Amino acid sequence: MIITINHIRAYGYCARGTRAFFNSHQLDWQSFLTNGVEAEKLLATNDALAIELVKHVQKEVAANGHGQ
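The structure corresponding to this sequence follows.
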């Protein structure tokens, strides 16, 4: 599952904080803005907020029947 900047915004996370998170976990911010990021990469950080976001998007996908 791909997590996009739209998911970040919809969940109420700010771009500045998300960018700092990406930098601290050596994730490519520009690639994320263009392509999104695999949920597994966010889960691999073991960051509680990232895990919470992925779970939220998974529930949204299950409820709506689509990923993006």
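The mean pLDDT is 93.
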